[in-house]
User: What shape does this take?
Amino acid sequence: MMSATQSETLLDFARHRGVITTGEIEAAGIHRQALTRLVEEGVLERIERGRYRLREREVTEHHGLVAATAAAPQSVVCLLSALAFHELGTQLPHEVWLALEGRARKPRIDWPPVRFVRFSGKAFSEGIEAHELEGREVRVYAVAKTLADSFKYRNKIGLDVALEALRDAWRERRTSIDEIEHYARICRIDRVMRPYLEALVA
Assistant: This one.
């Protein structure tokens, strides 16, 4: 039988995590009835299948990243979404760009709109930063790694977008040539990036 304490525990969990999933609720030993009751009372709201948040909770500009990565916890925020997170360039993507490793299962996400990209090996695992957003840990590629990725996927996002981000990062001293070259080698894009990097320091 569900106790009032379970509802209180679930509320504390939701306040701390922002977006909560049914899997996380079950793993924490909270009865499903507590979730059902709080939704019926209007305390929690269903974002989409299996994901909930406090109705009164203020959301931040990064709420889309929080919601998307809650549904795809093994993913990493990348490309246009990582550029926007780091405030590089002028792109405001209408989709959340997420990297998945190799053949990892692609979760179904109804909201927010998500675009998945497959990375493999060190191109997936290197350069990941953990940021706490709305009480959840969200993994985002670092500035230098995102720049290398942007040149690798320039046909998807546009060379002009990659160049704008590179110029912004260099002007604001957000990274170094050595860092960019390190990730460019990992992404096997060092030869493509070299002339642009040389132009920066000329």
Observations:
- The two ends are 71 Å apart (CA to CA).
- The chain has eleven helices and eight strands.
- The first helix runs from residue 4 to 17.
- The chain has a mean pLDDT of 88.
